[in-house]
From TrEMBL:
Keywords assigned by UniProt, alphabetized: Membrane, Transmembrane, Transmembrane helix
Domain of life: Bacteria
Annotated TM spans: 6-26, 47-64, 76-98, 110-131
Protein name as it appears in the record: DUF1304 domain-containing protein
Length: 134
């Protein structure tokens, strides 16, 4: 099985988990809004929105990854880099929501800061791969 066959399946199952966890957390917000507070609610929304949008981006990414001339190793490397980056970025918001404090650097913020460059590197790599395949 190739990277462009397996990784989109992982992304689709991740998208279903994002939808399910969003439903559960939304029920929590509606029931306990005062306990959650405005800062945590914002981080929940940011994490959830980023997770959904970036997982959709990953599905498009894998379609184009197959158009490169790269062998299996590079496709696996950059595909996994993209998935790890998007899970780190969006997951960091959610970790900060659960364990963070306003205006402080926490493990969640660090995760988010790691995820962004990983996504950017994977996207730049794909652009280079597509240019090379012309």
């Amino acid at each position: 099985m190739t990277a462009t066959e397996l990784l989109p399946i992982i992304a689709l199952f991740s998208l279903v988990s994002v939808e399910t966890s969003g439903f559960i957390l939304l029920r929590f917000i509606n029931a306990n809004r005062k306990e959650l507070g405005p800062a945590r609610e914002q981080f929940f929304r940011a994490g959830h929105a980023h997770a959904g949008a970036l997982l959709i981006l990953s599905l498009v990414y894998f379609l184009y990854l197959d158009r490169t001339d790269w062998g299996g190793f590079l496709q696996w490397l950059f595909g996994i880099m993209l998935l790890v980056g998007l899970l780190a970025l969006s997951g960091g918001f959610l970790v900060h929501m659960l364990y963070g404090a306003p205006e402080r650097t926490t493990p969640g913020i660090i995760l988010t800061r790691i995820g962004g460059p990983l996504i950017a590197a994977a996207l730049i790599a794909l652009a280079i791969g597509l240019i090379q395949a012309l």
